[in-house]
Amino acid sequence: MTRLVVVGASLAGLRAVEAVRRDGFDGEVTLVGAEEHLPYDRPPLSKEYLAADESPDTRYREEETFAGDLDVELLLGTPASALDTAARTLTVGDRTVSYDGLVIATGAHARTLPGTEGIEGVHTVRTLDDAIALRAALRGGARRLTVVGAGFIGSEVASVGRKLGLEVTILEALETPLARAVGERMGRALTHLHRRRGTEVRTGVAVDEVVATDGRVRAVRLADGTEVATDVLVVGIGARPATDWLEGSGLTLDDGVVADETLAAAPGVYVAGDIARWPNALFTDVAEGTMRLEHWTSAAEQGGRAARHAVDPASAKPYETVPYFWSDWYDGRVQFVGIATGDHVEVVAGDDAEGGPFTAIYRAGGRIVGALAVDMPAEVMKYRRLIGKRQSWDDALELAEQRRQQRAERAQGASA
Amino acid sequence: MRIVVDWDRCTGMGMCESLAPDIFEVDDDGSLILHTEEVTQDQEAEVREAVAACPTEALSLEGPIET
Ligand SMILES: Cc1cc2nc3c(=O)[nH]c(=O)nc-3n(C[C@H](O)[C@H](O)[C@H](O)COP(=O)(O)OP(=O)(O)OC[C@H]3O[C@@H](n4cnc5c(N)ncnc54)[C@H](O)[C@@H]3O)c2cc1C
Ligand code: SF4
Q1: Which of the two residues, A409 and A71, has the higher pLDDT score?
Q2: Does domain A331-415 have CATH number 3.30.390.30?
Q3: Touching A: B residues 36-65, CB under 8 Å
Q4: Mapping DSSP to helix (H, G, I), strand (E, B) and coil, where does residue A170 land?
């Protein structure tokens, strides 16, 4: 194994090259990225990058680190356009790059509303360039912000909008926002967080058309004919895996690149991050099929795993994980671990009726498979361990009881 | 080997606690408590996982393992 190539110079790609260098891999390493920017952190782009008066630098590493410590060749600014798994080569612009081991970490692109290309005031948030443009729009005297899609990123942007003093409306096609991500009941609980901060949430509405005047967004027209006037429109309707360049490569593409439990998509080819669809053995008993996550922690972990497997396929082990994501809304934090499928959700701390603080746990197949916390940072990770060890529902309830007692003791201590 | 926390970066996410609960714990107000700074050989693997999983890159390791 002499040459590792990593495509996609973001979180998963960065962690890929760092992992093999830390292990002492001394072959050549090339990192190919479509964007001009050095790898940077995306979660802040819908949070403090927009909210803070001085926008933070979200690059992970300095340029010197790649040339120096990491000894990685950076090919930035041109996307890979084709892959030949038989010849073990990639096309990048007019170059042909050959590899012995390959990691594909090209992530995902923001979905857009058809017909809105080029309309001023319409934004998505996926890249640093997107965030620079949105930051300027939100701070350039806008009064009204409309967000299409009540998902996590849309909700974060809505939170920032309120913080900056804008009137904010969220338009959501589903009756219950986030029902797929956290279930119906918890989706309703999270919606309270918006309403109590004065964000208007309209559910079960379909966007018919984005109305522009002189090339600038003016309103959103809904299917029932009503118009929602707006100065800035943010489209937060999810992401689509960046697999276009792999059409015809022979890899199996199905909402992501399909891989086996070791993240292998073809001999010598491994996938990582938002693009990776793989069977997560921890949950195959309760949720059939494969899983694709769009979460920071699993992208980081998979990057390291995929690269280690690519340079030493004989060492490949199944990758299983308890998914984790967080999301910052207003002054609070939503955290979720595990999966949201199951037959029962139980609120084990606090109260979800008004939107928290609370902690809820999810049951499937007689065991705990998920946990959601709003503004209870001490709780959720304790359940993550139980989920990872496939512990029973009763064990989870027992932990909940212990935590309840501990909180009561602390509350007494504090008031004594 | 010693754990170094960049307190300006840590936001109390608790990934570290879920991987190495004997060492890290997040309390009710979201601040991280470090139960020990020194990492033993038995703990090294899980601490390395915690360092890699921290979403704010707040954790790093310094020095050799004491035996
Ligand atoms: C605004 C925002 C907020 C988020 N907030 C959270 C959060 O609070 N919590 C959480 O857990 N997760 C969050 N996430 C998710 C997290 O950032 C992603 O899971 C993570 O970035 C995935 O990393 P990745 O390397 O797989 O893909 P990406 O970060 O999408 O990177 C893929 C890279 O590949 C490049 N690329 C694409 N096609 C090609 C090609 N053909 N050739 C070369 N390069 C290519 C792209 O330009 C990009 O730089 C957020 C994401 C966004 C966008
Ligand atoms: S995972 Fe990182 S941010 Fe979270 S508590 Fe641990 S050190 Fe702090």
Answers
A1: A71
A2: yes
A3: 52-53, 55, 57
A4: strand
